[in-house]
Design goal:
single chain, TIM Barrel, 259 residues, eight-stranded parallel β-sheet, alpha/beta, two-stranded antiparallel sheet, 20% strand
């Protein structure tokens, strides 16, 4: 499964984040429109049945599956920072990814990548020692170590460590978030859905120029191989359709990334 990175582009979503009777995200509608799924592993969201359903749904749609580990904070949805040691980050990563990996093996599927969630992502982005622990866990638990992180990937402590340790890093673009002038993401998303016409124009501009436009209007050059969508966005399905068509119009195949 997958194309070479030169002629393909990946669309990934964060999914499997429902919990019990509480439903989050449009996973069933989005899965046919994407190529890679980041599945919650039970700490910030999700549960065993949701994980199993999401893996089966991905398999039905020929979607590659990566792990989306987070902090143990269901009430805060993994978005509140915690004080953690490197040993704790290592163990939490292996514990969560290992659960998903076992579920994948039951479906004769292979873990594709790891992508940290929320506050864990932010902590790893800033703290080299935590990043080293996460990267070691990634190497120890992954068949082909690969992590997803927002472009520009060089701005994150964990991705700099990952590159030195031989882990493949996939840079992501976001069209349901805004950018600051330095290329960092402005993480507070508006309640209204993304403007689809604006998204189409921004996507076309990126493939023509390699630049995304920051909230201030400044052009920010970025290198990326994947576009991430948030499955709980108000018009996430329409956004996925718009981006998929924009990628095809730019001459790309939609496919998971292989290394």
């Amino acid at each position: 499964m997958g194309e070479t990175m030169e002629n393909s582009f990946d669309i990934n979503i964060d999914c499997g984040e429902s919990l019990g009777n509480w439903i989050m995200g449009a996973d069933e509608e989005l899965m046919p429109l994407i190529t890679t799924a980041n599945v919650a592993c039970g700490f910030h969201a999700g549960d065993p049945i949701t994980m199993q359903r999401t893996v089966k749904l991905a398999k039905e749609n020929n979607v590659a599956v990566g792990a989306h580990p987070g902090l143990p904070d269901l009430i805060g949805f993994g978005r509140r920072t915690m004080s953690l040691t490197p040993a704790e980050v290592y163990a939490m990563t292996v514990f969560q990814v290992g659960s998903l990996k076992a579920m994948l093996e039951c479906e004769n599927m292979t873990l594709h990548h790891i992508k940290p969630h929320g506050a864990l992502y932010s902590m790893l982005s800033k703290d080299t020692s935590l990043g080293e622990a996460f990267c070691q866990a990634t190497i120890d638990i992954s068949p082909k170590p690969m992590i997803y992180y927002p472009a520009p990937v060089e701005q994150h402590a964990v991705t700099r460590v990952a590159s030195k340790m031989g882990i493949h890093v996939v840079g992501e673009l976001y069209f349901d978030l805004s950018y600051a002038d330095d290329g960092s993401l402005i993480l507070k998303r508006a309640n209204e859905g993304a403007d689809l016409v604006d998204t189409k124009n921004r996507l076309a501009n990126f493939f023509e120029t390699g630049v995304v436009v920051a909230e201030s209007g400044v052009g920010v050059p970025l290198e990326a191989q994947s576009i991430c969508l948030h499955g709980d966005g108000p018009n996430a399905v329409d956004l996925a359709k718009t981006i998929g068509q924009g990628l095809r119009d730019a001459g790309y195949n939609l496919s998971p990334l292989n290394i």
